[in-house]
Write a structure and sequence with these properties.
Rossmann fold; seven-stranded parallel beta sheet; 44% helix; six-stranded parallel beta sheet
Length: 385
C-alpha cells in the first residue's frame, strides 16, 4: 500500500549521530515539517535512538557492504524503491547525489540539492588512490544533479563560487550559513586541568588534527597546558592520532574525550583557553569549501578561537577581531598563537566577546531557521507553479 508523504528528505549519512550532518538533518526536516506537515526521512541506519517530531517518518537503510561506492549505490537503489511506494510526492530535498538521482528521475518532484560536500572532491581526500576514471564519473553525476535540481542550497560563499565555476546559474544557489544554539553556562569539568586548549569534532585528514599535535611539541616549556580532543567518533578511530602523540612524545599532554553529549561538550569548551580549528590547505577546504560548525559553536560558547586562515573561515571571522587566524599546515605558527593566548588571556577575552556579539547578530539557529523557512516558502511556491 502506497503512502502520501508530500516531502522526502534523503541523506547518505548515519542518523541520528554526533556528526554535524545530524544537526543539518534535524534543522531541515523540522522546517520542512512546518511547511508540509508530513516528511519522509531516508538515511543510513544508526543504532543510537532518537525521538523524532510527530509527522516525520524515518526509514533507515542498513547494509554491511564495506566498499563505499557499492554501499552508496545500494543506498541509491533503496531510495528508488522507497520513492516507488509514494503517490503524493511534491518536494524532494537531498544532501548527496546518491539520494538525489532517484528524486531527479521523477520530473513531477520539485527538487533542492543541499550541497555541503561533493564526492569527487571528498573521496579524493579520503582515498588518494581513487582511479581518475571513477573521479570523472562521480563528477559527471554531480553535474547532472547540479543542473537538473530546481534549487540549490549551500552553507558558504566559497561553495557557491565553486558551483558557479561548474556552470551552475548563480540565481539558482542560495547561501545559508551554519549556526549554533546559545548554551547555558556550565561549571568546569573537575576531571580536566585548569589550563587547556580544545579541539572538537571529526578526525578526517582535512581537519588538521595532526598539525595540532605537532604544534604541541613546540610548547614543551609549558607543561601545564594540555590539549583536550573531543572526538565525535568512536575511540578506535582516534588510535592513529594516539600513536602519533606517543611518537611525538606528547602523550601525557593530550586528553581524549569521545562522543560527548551537548551539555558535556559545552562544559569543556566554555572553560578552555581557546578552541582550535586547524583546517588544512586541501581541495576539500579551498576549492569546494565548507562551513565549520565548530567555529559557530565556539562563538556561542564565548571561547577564543584559533583557526586556519582560509577563505571559508574569513567568511565567518575577521582576523584579530573575532579570532586569531594562522597559516594552515604550519605547526610552529599555530603553537606561537596558542602561546600568545596563554600568556595574554585578555586578548582571548576580547576576541571571544567580539565573536559572541557577531554570533548573536547573525548565526543563532533561530536566525538561520528563519532563512531556511524563507527559502522553503520559495520552494513550496515553485512546487505549485
Amino acid at each position: 500500500m502506497k503512502s502520501d508523504y508530500p516531502v522526502v528528505y534523503t541523506a547518505f549519512d548515519p542518523y541520528p549521530s554526533y556528526k554535524g550532518s545530524a544537526i543539518h538533518i534535524d534543522k531541515v526536516s523540522n522546517v520542512l515539517l512546518q511547511k508540509k506537515k508530513k516528511v519522509l526521512l531516508l538515511t543510513l541506519k544508526r543504532q543510537r535512538r532518537k525521538w523524532l517530531t510527530r509527522g516525520i517518518k524515518h526509514n533507515q537503510f542498513k547494509l554491511e557492504e564495506t566498499n563505499f561506492l557499492k554501499r552508496a549505490q545500494a543506498y541509491s537503489d533503496w531510495v528508488d524503491e522507497q520513492l516507488d511506494q509514494q503517490f503524493n510526492l511534491q518536494i524532494g530535498h537531498f544532501r548527496d547525489i546518491w539520494g538525489g538521482l532517484p528524486i531527479l528521475k521523477r520530473s513531477h518532484i520539485t527538487s533542492v540539492f543541499e550541497v555541503n560536500g561533493l564526492p569527487s572532491i571528498e573521496l579524493i581526500n579520503r582515498y588518494p588512490h581513487l582511479p581518475h576514471d571513477m573521479v570523472h564519473k562521480l563528477r559527471n553525476l554531480e553535474d547532472e544533479c547540479l543542473q537538473k535540481s530546481n534549487l540549490i542550497i549551500c552553507p558558504s560563499q566559497t561553495i557557491k563560487t565553486h558551483l558557479i565555476l561548474r556552470n551552475v546559474l548563480p540565481e539558482k544557489i542560495t547561501v545559508i550559513s551554519n549556526g549554533a544554539d546559545l548554551p547555558d553556562r556550565y561549571p568546569a569539568h573537575k576531571s580536566l586541568p585548569n589550563q587547556y586548549i580544545c579541539y572538537f569534532g571529526a578526525l578526517q585528514p582535512w581537519q588538521g588534527v595532526d598539525v595540532l599535535l605537532k604544534a604541541m611539541t613546540y610548547l614543551e616549556d609549558k607543561p601545564n597546558i594540555k590539549l583536550v580532543i573531543c572526538s565525535s567518533h568512536k575511540p578506535k578511530l582516534s588510535r592513529p592520532f594516539q600513536k602519533m602523540a606517543r611518537k611525538l612524545g606528547i602523550e601525557d599532554k593530550v586528553i581524549w574525550k569521545h562522543k560527548l553529549k551537548k551539555v558535556e561538550l559545552c562544559r569543556v569548551l566554555q572553560h578552555a583557553i581557546a578552541t582550535v580549528a586547524p583546517l588544512t590547505e586541501c581541495s576539500r577546504n579551498l576549492e569546494q569549501g565548507c562551513s565549520p560548525l565548530k567555529i559557530f559553536e565556539s562563538m556561542a560558547c564565548e571561547v577564543p578561537i584559533i583557526a586556519s586562515d582560509l577563505p571559508v573561515v574569513r567568511e565567518i571571522l575577521d582576523p584579530n577581531v573575532h579570532g586569531k587566524l594562522v597559516r594552515a599546515d604550519r605547526p610552529a605558527e599555530l603553537a606561537q598563537t596558542i602561546r600568545l593566548l596563554v600568556d595574554y588571556p585578555e586578548i582571548g577575552q576580547e576576541l571571544s566577546k567580539n565573536a559572541l556579539k557577531k554570533f548573536n547578530k547573525q548565526y543563532t539557529w533561530t536566525k538561520v531557521d528563519s532563512q531556511l523557512s524563507e527559502f522553503y516558502d520559495k520552494l513550496v511556491t515553485l512546487a505549485y507553479a
